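ok here's General stress protein:
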Amino acid sequence: MTDHADQFWGRLNDTNSGMLGTTDHARLVPMSHYADRDAGILWFITAKGTDLAQTAATGAQPAIHVVSDGGKGLYARIHGTLSLSDDRAKLDELWNAIASSWFEDGKQDLDVQLLRMDLTEAEVWATGGSLSFMFQIAKSKVTGDKPDMGEHYTLNF
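and the structure:
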């Protein structure tokens, strides 16, 4: 993969969450993602009663995941197809203390639902992070030049 892909996946792994929703509904909700670069998939753990899980239960849905982390220098709008998954091995792999906080009976809780987002495209803005931003703004005030705010690119999966 390209340097842009390495940059995107590396920074996405360092970012814990974003806003996830289906493109048919304007409502995006905060969700923690778990990235699988080799498969081009983002995984999410949610409850069966959530709007996202109920919408995905009707069949695979076009979805969007928006990530914004100035400290890591990543801003991305990620598109793909969201579907339900009953992959218990994947749930075992992803399960952690944060996920367990939401479910009384842990990963055995009957309300646990794994969501799978197969990625199709990501529009990415990659900056140097918050310190670099401040430096670029200060430099622009001294030199009169526009600040260098990093790279903007699109990845197709």
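+1. The domain at 3-156 is CATH 2.30.110.10 (Pnp Oxidase; Chain A).
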